[in-house]
Every structure is written in structure tokens, then in C-alpha cells.
Design a protein that fits this description.
- Four copies of one chain form a homotetramer.
- Chain A has 282 residues and is α/β, with parallel strands linked by helices.
- Helices cover 34% and strands 29% of the residues of chain A.
- Chain A is built from eight helices and 13 strands.
- Chains in contact: A-B, A-C, A-D, B-C, B-D, C-D.
- The interface between A and B is medium-sized, with 29 and 29 residues.
Chain lengths: 282, 282, 282, 282
């Protein structure tokens, strides 16, 4: 069984050795190990370890007790997952189809490994496409006077999921909703953040005359478009591109950036600390 | 003699034909011609034409009269330059040497074709390097109480130049100075504008946790870091890069971006309209 | 009616003026005009002009006669198309679905504007997907002993099309077939040509230890992977990527590169000369 | 004292733990640790560890004995260096100055940390520039009839160095010379290898009509342009770029790529195995 161990703690001497020793004594075989140390003297230490483990009698306890002791000694935040434990994924979407489509496609090919539990949209547009794949589609109109009820329905739709992906979902969720999904809700913003926060970033980009446009996948926090950035990318444009060209070119950046961010989250490659992400890329 | 003709005017039918006819009748041979039309129905039209011209008797008048007539008919802003008329270039610099160094280097290799008339700096650091190349170095300390006098000296130093390049010149020039060099003063800002306007953008970029950092060359306008963008570029970074790494990586982006922008300006490839640039790239 | 005029001829003085005059006299309004001159003294001249044209009585003849005269004077190869005349598109495919899928998707969103007449494959895999979109799927098994008959069926399937796209079609077509579709058959090769010609380029790339992998869309010619290149792109990889990772990362480059090349061909942006392409990008 | 430990060995369980334990017991504090495992079941394992170490009495022996034991147990190839032990660098150059210039510049700014012992060239061109920086310049003309003597002089010039950088050195060195500097001589080839091996790659690239050009830094091996690749990069070009444009654009790629490769080598970030490199990037 392939396992993943994620650790964050204040940096100190001996962490790697201690963790490696626990894993070794429990019969695990480390397959890969990535670390990042902010500053050896006083910063945080982050680690992602993949190991193969076919526990014999006693190994489970050795691992649990060992990790608990190490965790306490170094004041660790720790997460242990099984690689074949597929996360449950919910997608929220509005009219634009390109990000949804890319996620569905990479889910079908197995590049995105997750149980796709539900797609919820505030338009009925994607119902047929989604249902044909055997995935429930929840249509939640979001008119002004029934916002709260609508959000309640979205909450229920996603309830049993591990991750919500906002695949160009153009509605703003309440602080309460956002707080309930902290670090587990990914949005794609169609600009190179922090440039062009807010509405219609391609129009803003055109007006400013930038020579590159971009997209940003980030965890959603209460402040709009200000959450920890997971991935960004850009493409060159020039004066001859109109707003519609920027939208078209940008749509291809968006779907690639979002799909990468989702994949990394599902593979437990992303840690958040101090408003920034540590991404242990493959 | 290679000539360059730059035109901006409201779009209309027949412009290309009219200009081409004037050039033809004056004995010119069009070598390249780039156009950009914002919107054929109501926008602006921009054109850059390079032509070879060995005028015989009468040709000069044919060209002058012809262009004047076409210019009046279409309400053109027009600029005619000789390709071998080297522009006069002044560089302002502070402590950081990488942008200055790149410009000096490309000037030596002939990639940047200009008469480098003066380098002015508010630190004495680069005096030896600059003077060794036979270029005058004007050291202008900019303490708070003598700001106006210092700016006056900078003005005089650049007086006879066609273009001022702020090669990481970290002083803010007065609105009067800026107004006097509108469209003829290029700055490099060490971020992907409009992200991270103002001081220490690499520190801002680090704090925000962006996954790409960039640089922007733009014409200087009164509003800080808000002038028309000529060129931008970015490079990928990750969580492991500290502020100093971003500065190092960014310095290489800055010097390339600034050198490209300067070269394009010197080759009459850049037109400004409505706060945006049209860049006719080679 | 938006029209497109493509011209290739030996460079000479007066071409732009002559063409612009003919268009003007026929009542056309030039919307955009791109030229490329290999070498003003002795090379070829290439031009793509878009113009709006609502012909009155006599205009059609003015245009036809005028273009014929200009064409003869300058020894032009010329192509005049209507922008709303959708080209007829055939796609050949084998097992891999990513390129086919991207083309179908961009066709559905209207980014690729064409009449998709047929998809032909040497495996039955994509039949359902294709037929669900209302497009005929022709299954043509290509075993060794029935190669010729199979190719005959492919020929018939594509017969009425203007363009064949080989969307990871892993069979080699006969010289006769290739010759019949010269300049009208686009292939995607999964490497940065001319590196890694032939079979399994990702394995070759892995073995060579390259730090970037790429994809190349090109017109098919008799010599394998040696036809005129329309578009290429790359992405960074490192030592930790195994062959399967390269395949996965590469698949996203392939589909983007192929879709761009197909779109440019359909928009009459590509001219071929001397084994190289001139691409007038938007 | 910052130390760097580089390890290559057949993969096995317990390596990380064993190394970390030795370092811990010798009083070292691991600052960063990068590993790469080809294949946990049967491949090679590579590791780069940086640690701070202020050895007390006995620590040196603990470390030496400990590493020797671990090294033997796992059949390790091992290299231990002090980060502040500057490597000795020799540069060979021909006419082109851009790569030499970039290295000199990054050496002056401290980005490239090395003792620059000598520059040797088969032209006298760069003598003044180099000597002004206090570095010996050895002029070694390489005419056909005195090849062997010339190579002998180059050998002597570089004798005391740890690394030779061929900064656009356009002479082919003998197999004997190459063998003597295996893994310690870096060349920049002005193409995206393995495309365009051999002479005048920009002309080859132009003729093939590629849409991206590149540069490759690699260790020199006996077979021309076939050594392990350390770094590559590319930039977009189009049909309008002539061979000279490719040279100009390419020169900026070359110097960046070469400088990165040299820096990584000097920082002990590069391991070679099976004709490929493992590069532990910062």
C-alpha cells in the first residue's frame, strides 16, 4: 500500500532522521521524500513522504505510536493518507464550460483520480453532459432573493465531498460557506493574480495593455481572489488581441492551470502556511 | 536610404493604398509594412512602413507634398525617420547595475543602435565602468533637501537626448520632468504590472506567494507604474525561492525586458494610443 | 462579406500599392493586411489581406479583371476565399484520444470553424463519442495484408474534404496518398522536430535526458516527419519525469499545438514555400 | 560550515534514515535534502544534502567512519564538499563574446561563485577585457598543423582547474582531452539538442523552419553534442526571422542557459548517470 505522509512543524535538528526511523521500524519503504525548510534557524519545516507499506503484525501500532511521539516532540501538524483512497470531488460551475469540460475529460482519462460525486450549477446548461457520464447534476438557480436557500442547497450537494472546485463558478459564496471549506475549495481566477482582481479581468487586462495574460488557481478565502495561490500560468498576447481574443486564449490557460492545481491537491502535494502554498511537484 | 514611416489616424477605407501610392510615386521601394486596425468601423489605424529610397530630382517634393495631402485627408499623426539616424540616448541609474550593464553591453555589440550621450546616477558606483567606455557619467546625489537642484541637473544632462531610460533608477521624478519627456522616457519596473506597484515588488511577490515573477518596461507617466506597457516577461518560481532568489531571478528578466523595449523604441516600432502601446515587432 | 486574399510572388516594387488599388476600385474595404518579404532584393513576397466587400454592379468584374492583371504582372500565386465559406474537415485517428477530443471540443465551441465531415479510425474505440455528435465514424482496420484496401477506404472517406487532420493517426500512408493531399494534410508529431523523428519519441526524449519536451504540427510530406512545420511548443521537464510522465505532459502540448495549427489553416493563415511555412498569426 | 553531500547508489530501503542518522550523530544540522529515486524496486537512488556543521571533538571521526560504513553497506558513490570551497574555473572561448561576457558578469556580481583561474582563447579578441579583470588570458592559435601543441597548451592552462567551460569555443578537442575532463567540462551548443547537431545550427534551424529555437548546456563527451544535458531553453521565433535574427535571439538564450548550468555545477547540484543528468535545482 502506497501511503503519503505530510508534515508541517517548526524547523529543528533531527526531524528527517526521526521520521525516517519511525517509518523504517514500522516496516515502511520510503519511495520519495520532499522537504522544504523556510529558514533552518527559525522558520517552518514542511515534508511530504511517500512510502510503500505492507504492515505485519505490530507494524500498525509501531507506526501510530512512533508518529505520535515524533509529532509531539516537534509540534507537528501531520496528515497520513492512503494513495489509493480516492478523494471525493464536487464541482460548481456557471455558464462557461471550458474548465468543467477539462476536469471531466481528465477525470475520464484517469489523470485526475477522484470520485466525482456531484456537479452543481446555477444554470441548467451542463446537465446533459454531466448526467451522461453518470454524475448527478444539481441545478441551483441563484437569484438575489433566494441566495441563502440556494447556498444551503450547494452546501448539501457538496456535503460528503473532500474538495470543492469552482470551475468558473461566478457566484460569491458567503463567509460562512467559505470558512466551512477552508483549504478544501479551489477557485480558478482568470487573471495573473494579484493583477486584475474582481470582475471581467480580461477586459481589465485589455484596458491596461498587458503583454501577457494569465490564470490563477487558489484556495478560496473570505477576501475575494486573495487566497493562497496553488498554480499560475501566462501566455503572450499583443496589441492586436481584442477582449474576445484574450478570453479565448485565456480559456486554455485557465483549464490547464485549474486541472494541475486540482491534481496536485488530490495527490496531497499542497500545504498551506501563512497565506502561501508549498507545492511538492512531481 | 532606409526610411521609416509611422502613422496613426482614424480608420478609413483607402489608407494603405493612398500611402503606398505616394511612396511609389516618389520612387520609394516598400521593404516591410505592418498595420493594425483597432476596429475597421470606428477605431484607430496604425501603420509602420519601412522603405528604401534613393531620391532623384523632384522625389523629395513629391514625397513631402504627397504625405502632407494624405495626412490631411485622413487626419494622420505621422513620423518619418531615417533608419541610420541614430537616436541619442541617456540612461539614469541608481545602485543596481544589471540593467545598466545589459544596455551598455548591447550597445557595444550593436544590438542597441544609438548614440549613448550620458549616464547619470544618484550614486557614484558606476562612474568607472561608464567612463571607461568613453561615455560621460554625471553623478547627481539626490538628498531630500536638494531634490529640485538635482532634478535640474538631470534635466540638463539629458537635454540633448531623444530618449531617457530609467535603468533601475530608484528616484521619483517630478510631474513637470515626466511631462517634458512624455513618450520618450522608459522605465523598468521589477514586477508583472499591474501587480505589485510601488516599492520592493519582489518582497510583495514573495508575501503573496505567486508562482511566476515578472518585469515590465513602460513609458513613464505621472501616475506611478501606470504608463503604457511596452514589454513584459515572467519566469516560474516556487515556494522554495526566498526574496533574494526572486531578486536574482528577476534581475535577468528585467534586463532582457528593458533591452527589448529600448531596442523597439529606437527602431520606431512603438506607438502609444489610449494608454496602450502598439508594438510592431520584427 | 469578409474575404481573404492570399498572395505569393517574387518580391518587386509596387505590389502592395497595386493590390490595394484593385481592391479599392472594386469597392472593398481592407480590414487587415499582413506581408512578409524574404529579401526585398531577390526573395519571395507573401501577403494575406482581409477585406469587407459588398459588391455593387460591375464590382465583381473589376475585382476579377484587376486581380488577374496584377497577378500576371507580378507572377503571383493567388487564393481568394470567403471567410464564411467553412472548409470541410476529415480527421484520422488511432487509439489515443486526446487530440481528437480537443478538436471535437474546439469544434463544438466554435473555436475551430469547419464542417466536420468524417472521423476515420483504425480502431473502433472512438465510434460512440464521434457518432453521438452526429458525425460519421468510419472504422478502417489496417492489418498488413489489407493495407491497400484500407487506404482506399480512407481515401473515399476523406474525398469530399478540404483538409485531413492526422490526430495521432499512427499508420503510415502511401506516397500516392500523401501526394494527393499535399499542403492539405496536417499531422501532429509528439516531439520537438527535427529531434526524435520516428517511433516513440517520448521514450527517445527520456533516454536522451532532454530538459524540455515538445510537439510539432506539420504538413505531411513523403519523407516521414519532415514536412513544413506550422506550429511547435514545449514544456519543461526534469530528471524525475519517467516516460509515462512525458507522455502525459506531452499530450497537453500536442492537443494545443495541433488545434492551433488546424485553426490557422482553416483561417487561411498558412502559406508554404521552400519547405517552410509563413504563418500570419492573428 | 555549510557542507554538501552527494550520493548515488542502487535504491534500497533505509538509505535516507541511515544517512540522516550519521549526520545527526556527528552533530550536523540538515538544511535541505533532495532525493530522486529512479524506481524504488531496482533503479538508482540519488541524494543531495546540505547541512550545517560545527564539529566538536570526535565529530569528524564520527562522520568519516559513519559515512564510510553507510557508503559500503549501500554501495554508494559519494562526494562531500564544503560550500565555501570555491571551485577553480577555466573558460575556453573563440570569437563570440556573449557567453564569456555573461560568465564574467555573473562572476563579478557573485552569482557565479568560483575562482576564475584562466581564460584561454584561439583568438586574441578578448584579451583586454579579461586581463582588465585581473584574469590571465592565454592566447592559443589553433591552426591545423599545430593542433596538438595548441591542445597541450590548453591542457596546461586548465590544469589546476576543477571545471572547464566552453563558452562558444568552436574547436573540437581530442578524445584524450575530453576523456581527461569527463564530467568536468561543460559546453554550450546553440540549438535545442538533439536537433541540429554540428555546424551552424541557426542556419539549420532556419532551413527547417522551426518555430522555436533553443540552446543546450551539456557535459562534453567524445561523441559530438551527445553528452549529458544539464540545461536547455527555447524562445519563439517565426518565419520573418532570418538567420541573423536567430543568431541574435539565440545568443541571449545561450548565455542564460550556460550560466545556469555552470552555477548548478559549481553548487554541486548535478549528478550524471547513464548519459542523463539529475539536477537538484534550488
Amino acid at each position: 500500500m502506497r501511503q503519503r505522509l505530510l508534515i508541517a512543524c517548526p524547523d529543528a535538528a533531527g526531524i528527517i532522521r526521526s521520521v525516517a526511523t519511525v517509518l523504517h521500524e514500522a516496516g515502511a519503504n520510503i519511495v520519495s521524500s520532499d522537504q522544504y525548510s523556510e529558514d533552518p534557524n527559525e522558520g517552518m519545516f514542511f515534508m511530504r513522504t511517500e512510502f510503500d507499506w505492507e504492515p505485519s503484525a505490530g507494524d500498525l501500532q509501531t507506526l501510530q505510536v512512533g508518529l505520535a511521539q515524533v509529532g509531539q516532540r516537534y509540534d507537528m501538524t501531520m496528515r497520513l493518507t492512503r494513495a489509493d483512497d480516492r478523494k471525493r470531488l464536487a464541482i460548481f460551475v456557471s455558464r462557461s464550460s471550458h474548465c468543467l469540460h477539462e476536469l471531466l475529460w481528465q477525470w475520464q482519462t484517469g489523470e485526475i483520480q477522484a470520485d466525482l460525486t456531484v456537479v452543481a450549477g446555477n444554470h441548467p446548461d451542463h446537465q446533459t453532459t454531466v448526467q451522461r457520464l453518470g454524475i448527478p447534476y444539481v441545478y441551483v438557480p441563484m437569484t438575489r432573493d433566494r441566495r441563502q436557500a440556494a447556498e444551503e442547497r450547494l452546501w448539501q450537494a457538496a456535503q460528503s465531498s473532500d474538495l470543492i472546485v469552482l470551475a468558473r463558478f461566478m457566484q460569491i459564496l458567503s463567509p460562512r460557506f467559505v470558512a466551512g471549506w477552508e483549504g478544501r475549495m479551489i477557485n480558478i481566477h482568470h487573471s495573473f493574480l494579484p493583477a486584475f482582481v474582481g470582475a471581467d479581468p480580461y477586459r481589465q487586462a485589455f484596458a491596461r495593455g498587458v503583454k501577457l495574460i494569465g490564470a490563477t488557481a487558489h484556495y478560496v478565502t473570505e477576501e475575494l481572489d486573495a487566497g493562497p495561490i496553488i498554480e499560475q500560468d501566462v501566455q503572450r498576447v499583443d496589441h492586436s488581441h481584442r477582449v474576445d481574443d484574450l478570453r479565448r486564449i485565456g480559456s486554455h490557460i485557465e483549464r490547464q492551470v485549474l486541472a494541475r492545481a486540482v491534481r496536485w491537491h488530490l495527490e496531497d502535494r499542497v500545504l498551506v502556511h501563512g497565506g502561501r502554498t508549498v507545492v511538492f511537484r512531481a
